[in-house]
């Protein structure tokens, strides 16, 4: 099921950058090397700067640095041009980042080529209703640790590629709640500042041999807003699948891997440590893109480019519905922090469920394409939920937890004087810590019992109200039983003892005005 495409720009020498002024003459390293190499960090930076110099539609800025001080530039492409969010107007923002696992190289040239395409067009259709923000290389430190031995099972580039982990040895795509890495924080700063309607994380698969140039996923965590989830999974993605195959010939499908002799199609758990589900908790269209590692390097790049382009175009074409759905989700989250009914629950732990009916997924048998009827674990249901409180109270000594909340964009305020409040207190009845390190941590799991009492809250305690657009995210981060919350990631270890109280308190309802 290999697809051959014309590579019109291949073979262009990098030296042409010194003389050519046309935007279309600006090649990526992938194209200039005849698809044998991928760009180093310095090449990406030079491309971004040159594109901005050649086109008034392109603004570039640095949104962060890696632990080894490499810059993380974004490209902001708009017509009319913008350099700050206040200039967006009634357009929607579309955001994609690449190279989170730097050996998975296809998103890097794909984003640069898309930026070049938009910047070089007299009236690009995406820019009529969108402002496009692209971060071409997130794991810049891992990227520059290039070696031909990295990702040996991947088809190209033959001159080598970077590593999965960053310079700290961390997987950035397990960092979205704990935010240990400067790279993840850079992406979150873009989410906070530019507030995109759609956010795409561009990868390459590690898994099964299947019949698709690219597979994808959308948010599935049960705490994600259901309307945005359905818009993503049941409207955008099927429509993009159809348009991609119609106009490019690329076959795509929901991400997964074959299991149990090709009778199951299994996807990773819907945890907010993964970008797809974290971004979903922020009420955005959230899409994971996984190009097929056994497809050719050009096909992976061009398939990713087409997938991003078609996804962004779908958002532009359905902008009224997208805007309305996202705004309603934000308002709904805020209102849930005010209307504290018994059924107002925040899912904290979940499990995957197989669909009751099989679906057809293309794979191979005896080297020939075959459609297998498989059970797919598309569903994710809550197993532990908690009633949403009016607010949380975080002692001021937990500076790392408070810094984490601030980085996520969660609004907080300080108690200005000692205050007596009716609160809910968790008593820790059991606590266990993982035997082995995982992403620089040993994950914690606790069991708790809740009671009500009146307490004097000291000055400086931080109040986190749930009546905000990130109220569900705030609750998920601060609840002790949350599967990927701050307690699980050791932010409160100093005060975790069986038989004692959990340090974060709940304010079940708004105090009466005096």
CATH level 3 topology of the largest domain: Aminopeptidase
Shape: globular
Rg, please? Answer: 24 Å
Percent of residues in beta strands: 25-35%
Q: How many structural domains does the protein architecture include? A: 3
Identify the CATH homologous superfamily of the largest domain.
Answer: Zn peptidases
Number of DSSP helical runs: 11
Q: Provide the structure class.
A: alpha/beta
Describe the structure.
Helix content is 26%, strand content 26%. The chain has an 8-stranded mixed beta sheet with strand order 1-2-4-3-5-10-6-7, with helices on both faces. It is α/β, with parallel strands linked by helices. It is globular, with a radius of gyration of 24 Å. Mean pLDDT is 95; it is low at 1-20. It starts with 28 loop residues before the first helix and ends in a 7-residue tail after the last strand. The chain has helices spanning 29-32, 41-54, 107-120, 140-143, 182-194, 226-248, 275-281, 297-317, 319-336, 399-408, 471-478, and strands spanning 58-65, 71-77, 92-98, 130-135, 198-204, 214-218, 252-254, 257-259, 264-266, 285-291, 345-353, 359-365, 368-376, 379-387, 391-394, 413-414, 419-433, 444-457, 462-465, 505-507. The protein folds into 3 domains: 14-336, Zn peptidases (Aminopeptidase); 345-382, no CATH class; 389-507, no CATH class.
């Amino acid at each position: 099921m290999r697809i051959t495409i014309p590579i019109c720009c291949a073979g262009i020498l990098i030296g042409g950058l010194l003389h050519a002024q046309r935007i279309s003459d600006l090649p990526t390293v992938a194209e200039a090397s005849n698809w044998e190499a991928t760009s180093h960090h310095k090449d990406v930076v030079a491309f971004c700067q040159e594109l901005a110099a050649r086109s008034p539609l392109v603004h570039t800025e640095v949104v962060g640095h890696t632990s080894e001080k490499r810059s993380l530039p974004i490209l902001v492409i708009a017509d009319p041009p913008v350099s700050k969010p206040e200039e967006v107007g009634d357009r929607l923002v579309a955001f994609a980042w690449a190279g989170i696992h730097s050996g998975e190289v296809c998103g890097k040239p794909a984003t640069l080529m898309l930026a070049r395409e938009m910047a070089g067009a007299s009236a690009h259709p995406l820019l009529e209703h969108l402002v496009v923000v692209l971060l071409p290389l997130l794991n810049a430190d891992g990227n520059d640790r290039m070696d031909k031995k990295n990702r040996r099972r991947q088809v190209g580039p033959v001159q080598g590629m970077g590593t999965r982990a960053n310079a700290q040895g961390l997987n950035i795509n397990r960092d979205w709640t704990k935010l240990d890495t400067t790279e993840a924080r850079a992406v979150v700063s873009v989410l906070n500042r530019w507030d995109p309607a759609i956010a795409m994380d561009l990868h390459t698969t590690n898994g099964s041999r299947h019949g698709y140039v690219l597979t994808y996923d959308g948010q599935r965590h049960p705490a994600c807003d259901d309307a945005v989830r359905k818009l993503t999974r049941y409207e955008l993605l099927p429509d993009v699948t159809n348009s991609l195959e119609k106009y490019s010939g690329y076959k795509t499908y929901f991400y997964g891997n074959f299991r149990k002799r090709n009778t199951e199609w299994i996807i990773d758990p819907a945890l907010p440590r993964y970008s797809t589900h974290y971004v979903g908790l922020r009420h955005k269209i959230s899409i994971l893109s996984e190009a097929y590692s056994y497809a050719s390097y050009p096909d992976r790049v061009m398939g990713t480019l087409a997938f991003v382009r078609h996804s962004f175009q779908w958002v532009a074409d359905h902008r009224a519905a997208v805007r309305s759905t996202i705004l309603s989700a934000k308002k709904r989250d805020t209102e849930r922090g005010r209307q504290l009914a018994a059924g107002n629950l925040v899912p904290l732990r979940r499990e995957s469920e197989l669909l009751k009916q099989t679906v057809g997924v293309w794979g191979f048998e005896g080297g020939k394409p075959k459609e297998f009827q498989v059970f797919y674990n598309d569903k994710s249901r809550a197993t532990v939920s908690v009633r949403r409180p009016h607010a949380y109270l975080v002692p001021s000594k937990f500076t790392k937890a408070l810094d984490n909340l601030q980085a996520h964009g969660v609004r907080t305020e300080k108690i200005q004087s000692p205050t007596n409040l009716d609160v809910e207190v968790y008593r820790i009845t059991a606590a266990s810590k993982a035997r082995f390190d995982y992403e620089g941590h040993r994950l914690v799991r606790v069991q708790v019992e809740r009671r009500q009492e009146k307490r004097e809250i000291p000055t400086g305690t931080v109040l986190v109200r749930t009546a905000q657009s990130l109220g569900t995210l705030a609750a998920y981060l601060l609840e002790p039983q949350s599967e990927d919350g701050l307690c699980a990631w050791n932010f409160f270890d100093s005060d975790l003892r069986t038989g004692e109280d959990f340090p974060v308190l709940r304010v079940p309802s708004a105090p009466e005005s005096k």
